[in-house]
Amino acid sequence: MNFALAREAQEALKKTTRWQRFCMKMRGKKLYLGCEQKEGWSGKLPFYLFWCSACEHYAKDYPHGFIERQYLICSYCGQQQDFVSWRAPFTELRDLVLFFIRHRREFFDRRKN
Hints:
- This protein has four helices and five strands.
- It has helices at residues 3-13, 18-27, 87-102, 104-112, and strands at 31-36, 45-52, 57-61, 71-73, 80-82.
- A hairpin with an 8-residue loop joins β1 (31-36) and β2.
């Protein structure tokens, strides 16, 4: 259990509306709290408040992992919650387009033969 994040989650929860809590609990939404830089970190990371259905607490965490497979960790029970940013599909599409542009000559040469 991460006591510091659990305490921060309770403080952040006091600033939310009923609608935001409803969306987190019933619809699985993650509430963006802003970017923070903890002591010893080299940069800022986005933090989110979310509902953990495993331990039934509101928790605060930052996304872990690569952009296409990110997850949040509950500060109470340690359960991983799937979190894929809205940017992930666009990033994958951009990478696919760039790959096609870089290899277009090879692609068109194969079609001619």
